[in-house]
Amino acid sequence: MSTVDVIGAVKRYGRVAALDEVSIRFGEGEFFGLIGPSGSGKTTLLRAIAGFADLDSGEIRIDNQPVGDRPAHKRDIGMVFQNYALFPHLTVFENVAFGLSVRGRPREATRKEVGAMLELVRLSGFDARKPRQLSGGQQQRVALARALVTRPRVLLLDEPLGALDKRLRQEMQIELRLIQREVGITTIFVTHDQEEALTLSDRIAIFNEGKIVQIGAPGEVYERPRSAFAAGFLGDANLFQGAVLDGRGVEVGGLGILRTADALPAAGTHVTLAVRPEKIQVWVEGLATPGADINRFRGTVRRAVYAGTNLTYKIEVGTHLVTVFEQNRAAHPLPAGTAVNVGWLPVHSVLVAT
Amino acid sequence: MRDLGIWAVRLYLGLMLLFLYLPIVVMVLLAFNRSPLYQLPIVWDTVWFQSLIHNDRLVGAGLNSVGLALVNMVIATALGTMVAIAFARYQFRGKAVLELLLFPPITIPWLIIGISMLIFFFWVGIGRGLHAMLLGHVALSLPYVIMVVGARLKGYGPALEEAAATLGASPWQAFWRVSLPVMAPGVAAAALFAFAVSFDQFVISYFLAPPGVSTLPVEIYAAIRKGFTPEINAISTIIILFSMGLMLLIARLYRFGGER
After folding, report:
1. B72 CA to chain A: closest CA distance, Å?
2. Which of A46, A198, A315, B39 is the most buried (most CB within 10 A)?
3. Residue A300: its pLDDT value, please?
């Protein structure tokens, strides 16, 4: 198992900084997700680690050794590309064997290792097929087997499941995680799918405009976003801006006083609070109040979006339009115009930087 | 009503094929006619093909044509493929201008290119001869090769070569084991194109051939001016079959290329 260190990495394309002083350490055997909007630098970082993009300044170390002067084919990495980049003229067996073959491994050893790898990705018996005769999921597994067979130090995944449909993607997520655990390889993967990042990663780094906005475990990053961008990009968030009201809460214009469990700065300071839509409860006027010490406001349902397992409400509260996610427990969603109460615990009002 | 439409389409197609192929069919038929004066009915005979073998001028010109086309094919394909790779994989100054400048030679009349080449070659001291013809043919074939190979290269990005690199393949290994096999159908089609461009070339060859040296099209032209014999039909029949075979091969390779 290996570590990867990125130290002060800078990469500019013209006047745009794709990487702006990025420093990050990928630990041994870690499954690390890089997430961010397109053009945020996550793919550039992956390509810099692979050796396809030279840094303008800064350094990348694999196992504490700088690799800046080593070309891609001498870095001992495995990579799964967005569209798999399987060699169309070779069979599944030859594709997987490619890395061993360029290393001049004896034929018998190659056959054994490729066989074992195809078994790992559950593709035994597909040896003689050409890539175009495989489904998307199968191609993805060939790409994974091909990247792993040389026992690389680091596995890089560039939007590995992006080309698959939703159900297959969920299956492959579980499988990818199982295989990664079994092989125990340090894995860095790029995705723009927030759910994928949360499901797969041991840790996540959120990128924006060439900088890392926040690093942490999925639960940490999701529950305690440090900025409005992080809150909005990884999941959804209702943002409330207001002035600190002497420790008791935050005065939000057009809404009222909002309470939070976070330590607040001096009174009068302008702050932003983020509230996840699924933390907010909705109940109809007159019914019992769930809990006492909560943020509670009256509002009116403006829209209800029905999505089978869950409902999304847009509720007008004061001058704000609050988004609420609810499990579809009731048979009928509340119709537009219904007068409701909305409420959430102070601990769910998260203080974020704007 | 529907049926009528289908028949109209068939009639149209039939007329079109007739228009394209009737002259050729007539010529081929007459090549097998014994009469030197194109008299009907056709009496089946291969006499003109036999006399062709003893026509040293035509045979010599034919050998010149094939040799020139082969050498042109090798040079133009090698150079053109390299240019196509450079266009597809590298960014450099003036690339856009260079790519744009590839097209005019295809549209400029060959007559004008031929004359300008003749003038230029004399001016720089290259003169006339097979070497000058080869230069001309290579220059004419290059745009076609670059376009055909380039189209194939655009079909797959640099991802395959990058994948090979992450698997430990040096650039040299990646080229021989991945890039070349993948673009091979395109390169083969381009090679046949280059061959055809040279083999069918009349105007440039006519201008650049010195007295006593000629290629098949030039020789045929000269022979017609002296008097039309069915021998010309015979050699033309051979050329037609050869060219059509070549084109079918190109089409096949192209389809194979698109299949991926």
Report:
1. 29
2. A315
3. 92
Q: Cβ separation of B166 and A132 shorter than 8 Å?
A: no
- Which residue of A74, A77, A102 is the best one to mutate when testing the B interface, meaning the one whose CB has the most B CBs within 10 A? A102
ipTM of the complex, rounded to two decimals: 0.81
pLDDT on residue A314: 93
pLDDT digits (tens, 9 = 90+) for B195-207: 888 888 888 888 8
Rounded to the nearest angstrom, the minimum Cα separation between B193 and chain A is 23
- What is the CATH topology of the domain spanning A4-226? Rossmann fold (3.40.50)
Sign of CA dihedral A164, A122, A144, A3: positive
Distance of CA B34 to the CA centre of its chain: 32
Residue A68 has what DSSP assignment? T
The alpha carbon of residue A75 and the mean position of all alpha carbons in its chain are separated, in whole angstroms, by 26
**Contact state of B181 with A150 under an 8 Å Cβ cutoff:** no
Decide the pairing of beta strands A154-158 and A186-191: parallel
Q: Check if B256 contacts A (Cβ < 8 Å).
A: no
B167: nearest CA in chain A? A99
Residues carrying CATH 3.40.50.300, chain A:
4-226
Query: Which residue range is the domain that position B190 belongs to?
Result: 48-259
Question: Between chains, do A73 and B170 touch, taking CB under 8 Å as contact?
Answer: yes
Contact yes or no for A102 and B168 at CB 8 A: yes
Asked if the C-beta of B91 comes within 8 angstroms of chain A's C-beta atoms, the answer is: no
Query: For residue A186, what are the β-bridge partners?
Result: A154
CATH code at A236-352: 2.40.50.140
Residue A320, SS3 per DSSP: strand
- Stated pTM of the model: 0.77
Q: What share of chain B is helix, strand, coil (3-state, %, to 5)?
A: 80, 0, 20
Residues of chain A with CATH 2.40.50.140: 236-352
Model pLDDT for residues A234-275, shown as the tens digit of each residue:
888 999 999 998 777 888 888 888 888 888 888 888 999 999
In a domain, B21, yes or no: no
